[in-house]
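User: structure tokens for this one?
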Amino acid sequence: GELPKSYYTLNINVLPSVDAGPDLSYCGPTSRMPQLNVTGVPPDGSFRWSHPIPFGLGFADHLTDSLIADPFAHPDTSTTYVVTYTTADGTPLACKNTDSVRVRVFPPQAHNGGPDQIICLNQTAILNPTFSKLDTFVWLPDPTLSDTTIRKPTVKPVNLGVNTYFIVITDVNKCQYNESSLLMARHIAHN
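Assistant:
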């Protein structure tokens, strides 16, 4: 006789291509926290960040959230973070893949937006931020700045009171710092 025929359904899932991005820098609490960012995967899967420890992976401390694609990191020492992405196909059929990114920790550099100043309204002042000549910077646009691309722009505030000018400084380690310079504009004194 004939043997009974058997049919099997074979589900083939595509292994997700996980990309945790390039290595990042962090220079302590006075700098911007670097943001980790997974790309190349559908958003409906799950994410779990961890870091290597002896005998396996440990909980990813120093992250704002270890279960999202793009947490911010603030480690105390240079740390490699591993992200595991699991597809949303259900536990028996789920595919997993991993990638890693290193956050290098550097000592903070000395930066500031310059000394606070007091001037009379309609007068000008020169902002004088402090940072290394090797650092790059950008002043946030403001119509009262003479030029957002020069280190020490001239300002002529049009509002009484405190006027704040913001600069983003990037040091040689690629750490970013948000700094500001305060300028108090007062009425012109009349005799």
